[in-house]
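Chapter review: from sequence to fold.
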Amino acid sequence: TSSTDGELRAIEALKAGGITPVSVANPYIHAKAIVADGKRAYVGSINFTNTSFNFNRELGLVTDDATAVGTVQRTIVTDIGKGTAL
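The token string follows.
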């Protein structure tokens, strides 16, 4: 519901790069997922912060299983479709 200064800077950087970030109210999304090339996907709990990478016990998985990648990609697209542009 409120963004930190770092989050606001990240949102502005995305917008400057031509990306429209969205906020999704329902469901609450804590997971992080990336499909960059349609062939590999990352899914995990890691926040992209120094604390998360260096001090917390986090999980992340990279897969090239086509079925899993497709599922992750469809989920991301569905979630984005439910979002409100920031």
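Two observations follow directly from the output. The radius of gyration is 14 Å. DSSP finds three helices and five strands in the chain.
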